[in-house]
Design goal:
- With 408 residues, the chain is an alpha/beta fold.
- It folds into two domains: 64-212 and 359-407, Quinone Oxidoreductase, Chain A, domain 1; 214-350, Rossmann fold.
- 28% of the residues lie in helices and 24% in strands.
- It has 15 helices and 17 strands.
- The protein has helices at residues 6-21, 53-56, 102-109, 157-160, 191-194, 204-208, 213-223, 240-249, 264-272, 286-293, 309-318, 339-342, 359-367, 386-394, 396-399, and strands at residues 30-34, 40-44, 63-69, 75-81, 91-99, 125-132, 144-147, 185-188, 195-197, 232-236, 256-261, 277-280, 299-304, 319-327, 348-350, 377-382, 403-407.
- The strands form four sheets. Strands 5, 6, 7, 8, 9, 16 and 17 form a seven-stranded mixed β-sheet that branches. The protein has a six-stranded parallel β-sheet with strand order 12-11-10-13-14-15, with helices on both faces.
- Helix 7 (213-223) crosses helix 8.
- The longest helix has 16 residues, at 6-21.
- It is globular and about 65 Å long.
């Protein structure tokens, strides 16, 4: 599939949507959503209204640049349609800073085949509100905001439980089921519940980390792993989310934090962030080393922060009796559950897609500098250097990269 020009591509997309909408009538489309728990859910997309005159026109200012996915292994920085309001609860946000997530790499690898050709990727960022729908009451044009990676209607059964990740009209949809934040502009559904106001004078780069990695590491790793004072915990994977789990686990003062990775640079960084022990599993036997450190007992909590079979099975091998395995990683392939050894161990295994319920609390800790997620940023780019930024992030070990920031 060859590259497409911005004009032809956006016209094709518009014709398809207009045809589906049927002269202004709304439609609903079924799709399969595979969550990080590997649970397959049927979900109905919100109705799509007739396109506005502005979106259908080809006048100056209707287009923008964005990172567009074109199937496994293919992406491009290209001209595409600028988003417009589709529902009264929407806001359009001009991106100031965004980043690249390991989940984006999983999409590009083809691990999430439900992501369609033509999707703009990205689910993190900060920006300025450009326009709001008539039902948006918490934000106005010009407001400085954090974009949450999870969209919440605030009214459905799951939202009322605080399980925003499974919102019946939202959840994780940005850069997945709808266009995302690796662009000059993004449309945010249910803006009142999916944006957070940024006070004047705040550090934008630090706050980008609140879009996803900090709540993900904390909720899916630390909270699900039931980390307690005095515990010995292991974090398998020293990427940005693993580092976020490392930072936030220290809220609960575990006695020992063991970080396991195959990248010596990341392990050195983990040591500066509070790891008591680091293990390069490519250079030594991680299971033997951990059993030696724990007197053969294993760890109280094992946090999986990679999303491949080998790292999950490592967690199974090092977990102690009564312990907790907390999976964070996005798994695109099956993993073996070793019940032949775990059935009698009184362990729990948890999976979770981040709900972002802890974002307000984490926001306060960042603002007070109790944690400093900005230290995770290793590389900075202009937004139009998106392809170069991806190349750096995809070769993290070679480039000594953790988190990259792109500025518009």
């Amino acid at each position: 599939m060859g590259s497409r020009t911005g004009v032809n591509y956006t016209i094709i997309r518009r014709v398809c949507i207009i045809d589906l909408a049927g002269n202004g009538r709304t439609f609903a489309a079924k799709y399969k959503k595979i969550t990080m728990t590997n649970l397959v859910l049927d979900k109905e997309l919100p109705a799509v209204s007739k396109l506005s005159t502005v979106e259908k026109s080809s006048g100056k200012g209707d287009t923008m640049k964005a990172l567009v996915y074109h199937g496994a292994g293919r992406k491009s920085w290209e001209q595409t349609a600028k988003p417009v309001l589709q529902e009264p609860t929407d806001a359009v946000v001009r991106i100031l800073k965004t980043t690249i997530c390991g989940t984006d790499l999983h999409i590009i690898k083809g691990d999430l085949p439900e992501v369609k050709d033509g999707r703009i990727l990205g689910h993190e960022g900060v920006g300025i509100v450009e326009e709001t729908g008539s039902a948006v009451s918490n934000f106005k044009k010009g407001d400085h905001v954090i974009i949450s990676c999870v969209t919440s209607c605030g009214k459905c059964e799951f939202c009322k439980k605080g399980m925003y990740s499974h919102c019946e009209k939202g959840g994780w949809i940005l850069g997945y089921m709808i266009n995302g934040t690796q662009a000059e502009y993004v449309r945010i559904p249910y803006a009142d519940n999916s944006l957070y106001a940024i006070p004047a004078g705040s550090d934008e780069e630090a706050l980008v980390m609140l879009s996803d990695i900090l709540p993900t590491g904390f909720e899916c790793g630390v909270l699900n792993g039931q980390v307690k004072p005095g515990d010995t915990i292991a974090i398998v994977g020293a990427g940005p989310v693993g580092m976020a789990a490392l930072l936030t686990s220290q809220f609960y003062t575990p006695a020992e934090i063991i970080v396991i990775d195959q990248d010596n640079n990341r392990l050195k960084v983990a040591k500066t962030f509070g790891a008591t022990h680091i293990i390069n599993s490519a250079e030594e036997n991680a299971v033997e080393k951990i059993m030696g450190l724990t007197g053969g007992r294993g760890v109280d909590t094992a946090i999986e922060a990679v999303g491949v079979a080998a790292t999950f099975e490592l967690c199974e091998a090092i977990i102690g009796a009564g312990g907790h395995i907390a999976n964070i990683g996005v798994h695109g392939k099956p993993v073996t559950l070793h019940l032949e050894t775990l059935w009698s161990r009184n362990i729990s295994i948890t999976t979770r897609l981040v709900d972002t319920v802890t974002t307000p609390m984490l926001f306060k800790t960042v603002q007070s500098k109790k944690i400093e997620p900005k230290k995770l940023i290793t590389h900075r780019f202009k937004l139009d250097q998106m392809i170069e930024a991806y190349d750096t992030f995809e070769h993290a070990a070679k480039e000594k990269a953790l988190k990259v920031i792109l500025e518009n």
